[in-house]
Amino acid sequence: MSDDNDIIRGSGNVFRDLGHPDADKEQLRALLAARIISVLDERNLTGRAAQEETGIAAADFSRIRKANLGRFTIDRLMTILAGLGQEVEVRVDIHARRHPPTRAELHA
Predict the structure, then answer these.
(1) Which of 13, 25, 60, 81 is least crowded, fewest Cβ atoms below 10 Å from its Cβ?
(2) Residue 105 and residue 2: Cα distance in Å, rounded?
(3) Distance between CA atoms of residues 50 and 23, nearest Å
(4) How far apart are CA 37 and CA 31, in angstroms?
């Protein structure tokens, strides 16, 4: 029996925990977008200044800041980071997927 004080540990990927079908892709896009925002903040770049530096539309930087990532591919986000002088290193580990337990299994 569970009560409201039970701690449920996440998988480390909020998109997977929420049941998104492309959770790993969404997590990567969110991480890349967060890094773009971090670079903009560290360098005090406005969308227009970032546009001048990268050639990427200021509106795209606004969308990224608002986490409106629907139109951004992983490749495009990596290209934006490169335009901001960032080097993206990708490491791929392939293993059998372990599905997180269902809510019923967590409370059994």
Answers:
(1) 25
(2) 11
(3) 29
(4) 10
Look up residue 101 and give its two tokens.
């337990």
9, two tokens: 């540990």
Asked if residue 60 lies in contact with residue 36, where contact means CB atoms within 8 angstroms, the answer is no
Domains of the chain: 20-89 (1.10.260.40)
The model scores a pTM over 0.85: no
Phi-psi category of 29—alpha, beta or left, where left has phi over 0 and alpha has psi -120 to 50?
Answer: alpha
| Span 78-108, pLDDT tens digits | 999 999 999 999 888 887 766 666 665 555 5
- Joined together, the tokens standing for residue 27 give 């997590």
